[in-house]
Amino acid sequence: MTEVTAPPPPVAEALPLDLETMRETARRLLAPDAELPTTEELETLTLLLRGHMMLLIPAVEDAARPLPEDDVPRACALACVGEARMRLGLEPGRTLPAGIAHAQRLSRSVNALCDHVVNLDGVHR
Predict the structure, then answer these.
(1) Highest mean pLDDT: which of 7-11, 15-19, 49-53?
(2) Gap between the Cα atoms of 92 and 108, Å rounded
(3) What pTM was estimated for this model as a whole?
(4) Is the pLDDT reported for residue 51 higher than 60?
(5) Collapsing DSSP states into helix, strand and coil, what is residue 4?
(6) How is 16-59 classified by DSSP, letter by letter?
(7) Which residues have a Cβ under 8 Å from the Cβ of 77 and sit 6 or more positions away?
(8) Alpha-carbon gap, residue 25 to 45, rounded angstroms
(9) Contact 29/21 with Cβ under 8 angstroms?
(10) Burial class of 30 by CB neighbour count within 10 A (0 to 12, 13 to 18, 19+)
(11) Residue 38 pLDDT > 90, yes or no?
């Protein structure tokens, strides 16, 4: 007997994205009055930001996919995805200031990806 299974749903439908929490994590390093994190806090924040990006990238791609190829918001979203993927491939520097700068760049990508999810999907999750 052959078992038939449905294909998995797109990531954006499979995982509810907590954009508020993702943005809050990003603000931790970008707020004008942000306190400098300890080395341990920075490591945790960096891992959180990377995890957020790993969830957001496929969600943005899923939201952009149905749009026409010459659509400007689609092109902007996919450019943001490309930059986010590049940032995921970078290693933080060995000093605390270099690690903070790296995490701030990840934070900016998280914010931009959240914006694209909202703008392309039209739904705040």
Answers:
(1) 49-53
(2) 15
(3) 0.83
(4) yes
(5) coil
(6) ---HHHHHHHHHHHHSTTPPPPPHHHHHHHHHHHHHHHHHHHHH
(7) 60, 63, 64, 116, 119, 120
(8) 7
(9) no
(10) middle
(11) yes
